[in-house]
Amino acid sequence: MSFHFEVIKKDRFSGARLGKVETDHGSFFTPAFFPVGTQGTVKSVTSEELKEIGVEVILGNTYHLYLRPGHETIGRLGGLHKFIHWDRPILTDSGGYQIFSLAKLRKISEDGVTFQSHIDGSLHFLTPERVIQIQRTLGSDISMVLDECLPYPSPYEYSQASTALTIEWARRSLKERQKKDSCLFAIIQGGAYRDLREESAQTLVKMDFQGYAIGGLSVGEPKSLMLSILEWITPLLPENKPRYLMGVGTPEDILDGVKRGIDFFDCVLPTRNARNGMLFTSAGKVSIKQAQYAEDERPIDETCDCYTCRHYSRAYLRHLYLANEILSSRLNTIHNLYFYIRFMKEIQKAVREDRLVDFTKRTASDHPSWNQESLPTG
Amino acid sequence: MSFHFEVIKKDRFSGARLGKVETDHGSFFTPAFFPVGTQGTVKSVTSEELKEIGVEVILGNTYHLYLRPGHETIGRLGGLHKFIHWDRPILTDSGGYQIFSLAKLRKISEDGVTFQSHIDGSLHFLTPERVIQIQRTLGSDISMVLDECLPYPSPYEYSQASTALTIEWARRSLKERQKKDSCLFAIIQGGAYRDLREESAQTLVKMDFQGYAIGGLSVGEPKSLMLSILEWITPLLPENKPRYLMGVGTPEDILDGVKRGIDFFDCVLPTRNARNGMLFTSAGKVSIKQAQYAEDERPIDETCDCYTCRHYSRAYLRHLYLANEILSSRLNTIHNLYFYIRFMKEIQKAVREDRLVDFTKRTASDHPSWNQESLPTG
Fold first, then answer.
1. SS3 for B5?
2. ipTM surpassing 0.90
3. Which of residues 6-45 of B touch A (CB under 8 A)?
4. Residue B363 carries which DSSP code?
5. Tens of pLDDT along B198-242?
6. Residues of B with CB below 8 A from A295's CB?
7. Does A87 touch chain B (CB under 8 A)?
8. What angle do CA A346, A348, A354 make, to 5 degrees?
9. Strand partners, A113
10. Cβ(A238)–Cβ(A207) under 8 Å?
11. Of the four listed, A52, A83, B282, B294, which is most buried by Cβ atoms within 10 Å?
């Protein structure tokens, strides 16, 4: 499978880059945000709706698909694209994050990781090689190496050993990779420690992957640490390879990443928040269940022209949410994803026009509520 | 609001009629099936999807909308059509069925009915007049009188008194009705007793409503009793008024109703079954969770050209159902509603061509599983 990345334009006043990716399933501009399609569906919406929203790439979770329905089933049915009716690029993660956050009784060895399925308790053993094979069977366009996702905080010695293991696993992944496979990204770990992060980055860069992900973030660390890690790492990464900040994040976090040279982002935030009735708007976050919206005829965001904002009032969306209607999740998801995609297009435009710093300042003052840590889980 | 019904064609070999209804929100042919939009949404699907499926009329539940978000709220927001973004006809029921099946601590008097909300336990009192006013505020195209929905079985004396009360309430409803209101249907009750059913029908017909509903069915009575009741009542109803068999039903029940001269049907069956993974197909009912579909590449129904069947395999639909994904409810609902709407169009065509009896025989032998009573609830 082909993969080509090119930096089209660098921002004069920050580390931001405007890039373009070409794959067998189409091209897209970066910085880009990938909605998460955990179990083979971006929850509640169809492929046609994702396209109408402007989504160009989705993420599939290898851990979930491996467990259910099973990658071999998906392979026999023609691969993930055909199975889920999505003909644009798909990035699959390696399962590392889920094994270390969802699975039970995990046991890590040099060879790989043993864990119990969170669904039925069945026992599984995954190696770096097997994770490459699984992603090959799924047929994703961008795949990731198996990594150990360090919790925060982790002691130095454990972090050191774990980072070395993730590097070794990356080496084995590269060896397993075949020419016809999709492109492969390494994952830089190293916990909260500068020397480990730098060593991880430098060693992985020498191995010459097609892209570099920064892992072990969004695991409860302070925001300032995330920014420091980005500042330590990105100068060490090759200019001509895409950089992927995994699991990030809020619009503000995305801007912070873009300014430091990040190209790819993914996060469940817009979709999960949508299902929890938390909506992103040009005037800040809106909790749709609030009584003040009971008879509010306005759309969620008067500056938005998504399907939801074109046809439905805040009053109706509040009603759907309180009545626990499925349509609530759908309409809210459409709006939040549209907000994110529009936001990424604005970022791309700002980089093209050398005004990302201004854009960031304006956005931060327009959206004070983005700075609040009020992310519901569910 | 205007309402016009016309019988275009009567079947030569059964009581079936092909009709046409015209309302301020558009026209539709009968026999017609109305999907149920309980709380202001046909669960999981949008208006655009309903239109693509071919749905021409939906039903709204007065009881639910009265309790949440409240008819007055909907009225202030421009009425039900605008609130829910549906510009085709809406039929609202009277709430009678829900008060007698869902609400708690109901107490009936000559004046009306007192009940506790199933949502928050709040106390409510509804009269026939108030139910007309509520539907006026909602702005539905077809409205129903408040009735007492008799459980099955009910003793003769209680049924007699209750039927008399429903008739008296119908009289009061007619008095409350204003010229600008939508058309009003009476509801024929009478339980399992022929004389009560006939008296109910004859008395209500004399009052000259714009249509006649047959109530108190689909409450657990044997199928043979439902057919008997239809055979007792329909000869007493005026030819030029629509007849509505409330809460019915399976494709087979619909055919049985059509043959006996029924024009309108509504039921939660296609939508509720969809959410429970039970799909209607030209080869009978399919329970999508079955292991036999795990790697089945075929659409649910190879003769179906709905959105779901055009793009998704049984294997994917099974996966979505087992993974408890919202998209499962959506795709299944689209398919089941499409099946019902296509079925109604085939019925209309068969009546037009005087071959409904043949159509019924062929359908019954093609779909043995339709005769099974295997309707999951949920």
1. strand
2. yes
3. 39-41, 43-45
4. H
5. 999 999 999 999 999 999 998 899 999 999 999 999 999 999 999
6. 73, 76-77
7. no
8. 100
9. A108, A126
10. no
11. A83
